[in-house]
Design goal:
Number of helices: 7
Number of strands: 0
Strand content: under 5%
Low-confidence stretches: none
Length: 193
């Protein structure tokens, strides 16, 4: 099929762990890791790479993305831990917070449960690195929200690109690569703008 071989995802788990430790050290106030938040970017890139690898394997195998299986694996992997975290955080915060703090926290916890925390904070004009970041007990869920939104849309976009490219015959992989490259360039241009 002309697909380049990709290494097994297990080879990248160590690097993803280092990225997570950088973020933890940054939040713990380690002076030598003042730029540790870059670990989030590293984690996003590696996760994108691994997800794309899984999707490419499906495409190479039977020519389609198995969306049901893909989403079921993501739900089983992330939803139980996130639900426990949100329930425990909500209960502990309810015991400690004032009524006005509790109302704002309730809205942010609901946004976290729906994996839209990043958009909630945008709407609230909250700055993740600002002094008010401690106002929400789930501020850290913004990165999980971004990752989950990627998991929702990327498989659909890649499957759509592959469907469009099927009409290109033997050039279909070149068309898919071109569509992905065009999307990446559009994203970069939007970020720079």
């Amino acid at each position: 099929e002309g697909l380049l071989p990709l290494p097994d995802g297990q080879h990248l788990d160590g690097l993803r762990a280092v990225a997570v430790y950088l973020v933890v050290a940054f939040h713990a106030g380690a002076d030598r890791v003042s730029g540790g938040f870059i670990g989030v970017d590293v984690f996003f890139v590696l996760s994108g790479y691994l997800v794309t690898h899984v999707l490419r394997r499906d495409l190479a195998g039977d020519g389609r993305v198995r969306l049901g299986r893909f989403y079921a694996r993501r739900v089983r992997r992330l939803l139980p831990a996130a639900a426990v975290c949100l329930v425990v955080t909500g209960a502990v915060y309810a015991a400690m917070a004032s009524p006005s703090e509790l109302d704002a926290a309730r809205r942010s916890i609901q946004a976290a449960a729906l994996y839209v925390t990043n958009w909630y904070f945008v709407a609230e004009s909250a700055d993740y690195f600002g002094a008010t970041v401690d106002a929400s007990p789930v501020a850290h869920f913004w990165s999980l929200s971004v990752e989950e939104q990627f998991y929702v849309f990327w498989p659909l976009l890649l499957a759509g690109a592959f469907t469009v490219a099927r009409r290109a015959g033997r050039w279909r992989l070149a068309v898919v690569r071109g569509l992905v490259a065009a999307g990446g360039l559009a994203s970069l241009a939007a970020a720079l703008w």
